[in-house]
C-alpha cells in the first residue's frame, strides 16, 4: 500500500476545507463536529450522540486525564479538544491546515473561556512544537488527508514525550484496487490521494517507532455515518438559500450512497489506533 502520494497537495486540501467549512456547518453540524460516529446499533440514527461517543471512546483509550498535555492534529473546529478539556481538565493545543476551521475553533474557545487550550494554523508535516512537548497526540479523521504520511508520523513521534500516547481514528484504504466510482465519490471528493489498510497503518506506525496497542476495524460505523448523513443532507438541501450550496449538499447526499457501496466493496473503511512512544531506556 502506498504511503506517500502527492496526487493532491496540502494546498489542495487546505483550499477544499477552507472553501467548504461554511457549507459543512450548514448541513452536517452547526457546531462543527465533523467526524465519523460510533453508533449504538443498526437502528441508531442519532449522529450527534454517535459523534460524541467516538470522542469519548478515543479519550478513554488514550487515557487522557487532568495532568495530560494534548495535541489534536487536524482538530478542525476544535470540538474534541474543548470536550476533552471540559471533561478532564487537561491542557493542550489544536492544530489544523484550514485557517477557516482554526478561526472557528479560536472563536469558540474564546467564547467558552476554556483555560489552557489554544488553536493554531499549521500542518501535521511541520508541527510547530519542541520535541517531547505532549503526553498525548490525538486525531480524528484527519491524517488520511496528509500526502506525506511518514513525515506526519515522524512529527507526531517527535513531539510526544517518551511513554506518550498517540490515539487516532482515521479513514482507511483497504485495497490498492480503487474503482472509478469510489475514486470520484470517496477519494477525489475530499482531495484524498491514498491511505493505508488496517494492517498497513499499524505497520507504518511501527516503522515510525511506535508500539501499536490497538488497531481496530470500525467499518460498520462509518457506513452508518454516511447512511444517516445522506438522509440529513437531503433534508437540509431543501432549505439552503444559496443555490451553489444547495447543489453541493445534494451532490454530497448522492455521494453518500456511493460511499456506502464503496465500503461494501472493500474500497473504503475506518479504523481506530492507539500507539505508544517507547519510554526512554
Ligand atoms: C474530516 S475533517 C475532521 C476535523 C476534526 N478532527 C473533527 O473531528 O471534526 C479533516 C480535517 O483535517 C485537516 N487537515 C487535513 N490535512 C491536514 C494537515 N496536513 N495538517 C493538519 N490538518 C489537516 C482539515 O483541514 C480538516 O479540518
TrEMBL record:
InterPro entries: CFA/CMAS (IPR050723), Methyltranfer_dom (IPR025714), SAM-dependent_MTases_sf (IPR029063). Gene3D superfamilies: Vaccinia Virus protein VP39. Its EC number is 2.1.1.-. One of its GO terms (molecular function) is methyltransferase activity. Residues 65-172 form the Methyltransferase domain. The keyword Methyltransferase applies. GO terms for biological process: methylation. Keywords: Methyltransferase, Transferase. It comes from the Bacteria. This is Class I SAM-dependent methyltransferase. It comes from Micromonospora rubida.
Amino acid at each position: 500500500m502506498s504511503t506517500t502520494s502527492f496526487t493532491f497537495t496540502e494546498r489542495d486540501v487546505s483550499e477544499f476545507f477552507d472553501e467548504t467549512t461554511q457549507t459543512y456547518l450548514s448541513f452536517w453540524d452547526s457546531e462543527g463536529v465533523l467526524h465519523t460516529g460510533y453508533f449504538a446499533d443498526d437502528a441508531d440514527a442519532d449522529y450527534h450522540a454517535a459523534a460524541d461517543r467516538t470522542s469519548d471512546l478515543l479519550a478513554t483509550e488514550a487515557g487522557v486525564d487532568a495532568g495530560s498535555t494534548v495535541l489534536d492534529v487536524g482538530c478542525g473546529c476544535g470540538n474534541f479538544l474543548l470536550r476533552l478539556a471540559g471533561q478532564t481538565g487537561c491542557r493542550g493545543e489544536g492544530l489544523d491546515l484550514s485557517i477557516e476551521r482554526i478561526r472557528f475553533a479560536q472563536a469558540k474557545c474564546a467564547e467558552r473561556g476554556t483555560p489552557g487550550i489554544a488553536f493554531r494554523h499549521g500542518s501535521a508535516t511541520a508541527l510547530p512544537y519542541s520535541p517531547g512537548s505532549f503526553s498525548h497526540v490525538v486525531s480524528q479523521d484527519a491524517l488520511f488527508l496528509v500526502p506525506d504520511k511518514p513525515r506526519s508520523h515522524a512529527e507526531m513521534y517527535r513531539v510526544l514525550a517518551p511513554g506518550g500516547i498517540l490515539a487516532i481514528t482515521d479513514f482507511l484504504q483497504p485495497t490498492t484496487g480503487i474503482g472509478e466510482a469510489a475514486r470520484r465519490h470517496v477519494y477525489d471528493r475530499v482531495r484524498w490521494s491514498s491511505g493505508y489498510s488496517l494492517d498497513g497503518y499499524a505497520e507504518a506506525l511501527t516503522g515510525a517507532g511506535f508500539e501499536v496497542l490497538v488497531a481496530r476495524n470500525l467499518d460498520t460505523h462509518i457506513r452508518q455515518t454516511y447512511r444517516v448523513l445522506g438522509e440529513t443532507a437531503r433534508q437540509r438541501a431543501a432549505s439552503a438559500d444559496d443555490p451553489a450550496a444547495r447543489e453541493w449538499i445534494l451532490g454530497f447526499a448522492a455521494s453518500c450512497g456511493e460511499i456506502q457501496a464503496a465500503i461494501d466493496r472493500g474500497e473504503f473503511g475506518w479504523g481506530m489506533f492507539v500507539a505508544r512512544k517507547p519510554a526512554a531506556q
